[in-house]
Amino acid sequence: MNPINLVLNVLWLIFCGIWMAIAYTVAALICFILIVTIPFGIASLRIAGFVLWPFGRTTVPKRDAGAASCIGNVIWVIFAGWWLAIGHLITSIPLFLSIIGIPFGWANLKLIPISLTPLGHEVVPTDVAFGGR
Q1: How far is CA 102 from CA 4, 67, 68, 85, in A?
Q2: Closest CA to 98 of 27, 2, 15, 35
Q3: What is the pTM of this model?
Q4: Rounded Cα distance, 64 and 132, in Å
Q5: Can you tell me the distance from the alpha carbon of 13 to that of 132, in angstroms, rounded to the nearest whole number?
Q6: Rounded to whole angstroms, how far apart are CA atoms 17 and 120?
Q7: Rounded Cα gap, residues 54 and 48, in angstroms
Q8: CB-based contacts of 64-68 (< 8 A; 24+ apart in sequence)
Q9: What is the pLDDT of residues 11-68, one digit of tens each?
Q10: In the 8-state DSSP scheme, what is residue 115?
């Protein structure tokens, strides 16, 4: 791991990563309790790991994602996605108020699309996603 990414991830974890990861974990636990929504819980845990340690990783669409992922994402947005998106928006506001927090505020806003549509995406290292190394 790049030392800069390590420093950014540690600062991210302290300022907002842990809180958003907890929110995704709570959403996953609710999905696991409801049994029918277990795939949503698995997706939520995957995104919780990404939100916990985002720098040096990104999300890419799965090639084999089909109509079921699209329908699932619509259901996800209705029941949990918009709450998590609002969480990202709210946690970005105090980050924007400090000069050090501005990059983290932008990173938080960039996580909103994946919070709305977690199905049909996978988390990969940034250099793999952009063809590096």
Answers
A1: 16, 37, 37, 18
A2: 15
A3: 0.85
A4: 23
A5: 26
A6: 23
A7: 10
A8: 65/119, 65/120, 65/121, 68/119
A9: 999 888 899 999 999 999 999 998 888 999 999 999 999 999 999 898 888 888 788 8
A10: H
